Amino acid sequence: MSIAICPGSFDPITLGHLNIIRRTSRIFDRVVVCVMYNSSKTSPMFSVEERLDMVKRVVSKYPNVTVDSSDGLLAEYARQFEGAVVVKGLRAASDFEYEFQMNLINKKINPEMETMFLTSSGKYTFLSSSVVREMARYGGDLKGLVPDEIIEDIREKAKQWRVH
Ligand code: ADP
Questions:
Q1: Does residue 120 have its Cβ closer than 6 Å to ligand 1?
Q2: Tens digits of residue pLDDT in 6-36
Q3: Distance (Å, rounded) from C-alpha 17 to C-alpha 90?
Q4: Among 19, 35, 36, 70, which is 20 to 30 Å from 49 by CA?
Q5: Full residue range of the structural domain in which residue 112 is found
Q6: Whole-angstrom Cα distance, residue 18 to residue 96?
Q7: Element spanning 34, H or E
Q8: What is the 155 CA–ligand 1 centroid distance (Å)?
Q9: Catalytic residue among 23, 56, 91, 157
């Protein structure tokens, strides 16, 4: 059975993430979406539990996709799934540089782990969780950026973050 891991901070999950997850679920028998704590992002909008809950709701329509979380290194996390392939989305050249570097580090930790990249679908090239958080802070329309099921969660959370 082929297994893919789609890692990310998903703070919050966007239609760009979902596009990669959906496409991955068509290629692999099983997909594990892993919500990572990510220590480099100091003040997340949502707690890991909240992010997990939103991702679960959004991917529940895909029968071969499950959701998990990890506060460790991805390369260590991947060891529990034999032969699993990490699948990530690539938006721009800047993503490529970062991912290339990460891949070298991951290979050092876990040489067995392979990473594959799917290029972002054109309409989501400029979409990121940070764009969504910024839009939410200013009360912007989130339709077309995140799955409809989680728009209310973001609106509610944004009330505490609102600039005006
Ligand atoms: P972000 O960069 O939005 O904070 P994450 O850290 O959660 O996202 O990223 C998880 C994975 O999803 C990464 O591989 C990232 O490149 C990919 N990704 C994020 N947004 C998009 C998008 N709009 N299109 C394709 N891939 C994306």
A1: yes
A2: 999 999 999 999 999 999 999 999 999 999 9
A3: 10
A4: 19
A5: 3-123
A6: 19
A7: strand 30-36
A8: 21
A9: 91
